[in-house]
Specification:
By secondary structure, the chain is α+β, with helices and mostly antiparallel strands. It has helices at 56-63, 91-95, 109-114, 129-142, 154-163, 177-190, 194-199, 202-226; strands spanning 18-23, 28-36, 39-44, 85-90, 101-102, 165-167, 235-237. Strand 1 (18-23) and strand 2 (28-36) form a beta hairpin. Helix 4 crosses helix 5 and helix 6 (177-190) packs antiparallel against helix 8 (202-226).
Amino acid sequence: MGVVSNKIERENLKPGDHIYSWRLAYAYSHHGIYVNKGNVIHFTRGEGQEIGTGTALDNIIGSSLPQHPLENPCPICGDESRRDGVISSCIDCFLSGGDLYRYEYGVTPAFFLAKARGGTCTRASSESEEQVIHRAFYFLRKGFGVYDVMKNNCEDFALCCKTGWKVIPTVDGGQSGQAATFQAAAGVILSVPVAFLARSSPVGYAATSVARLVASCGTYCVNRYINDIGVRRDVVKVVLEE
């Protein structure tokens, strides 16, 4: 566990841990809450469920969800991976062949910024194991709304279980580190004027590219930081109503 990697062995897991596994050659990660005895509660759009944004990323995520043939469901958890919304499944179905990682909470600003990729840690503090597991089972019964890859995804679910915080619904964007990373990267790419680059001389282009690279890295890091659930203030405490 650290700046380089959050990878963890199964025997070191504790109930209430926020875990994740990378998909499609690290294109994105799937998140959930480890509850006990190899069981994970996580939020997925399942097979055939419509989701909010309709982007290419939605289709990639949908096509890479764990699948079992109808005639050969998982011998441990049945065919939970085909359900929509918040589900409980075995850790093997959750990982879908990937490695196991644990999300880190209460990290320092320096540690957060040293993680070049979002969706691995947060400045926010985790609540107690009992509270985390209680929320996870509550959402398993009541649901967590409609899955949206940018505004209400599996990382948003796990963050809410761990902290009790959720971004105000009217805000454009979710609270997940992955969403913040995609938005920050898109902002950096769009900030480069293509017409200017086309007119630049090789020397001028190189000098400008270095300057822009430094500025872009700074912009990327700042955007990731200010969108972290542990820093932003446009969040509300989730009240669980039975």
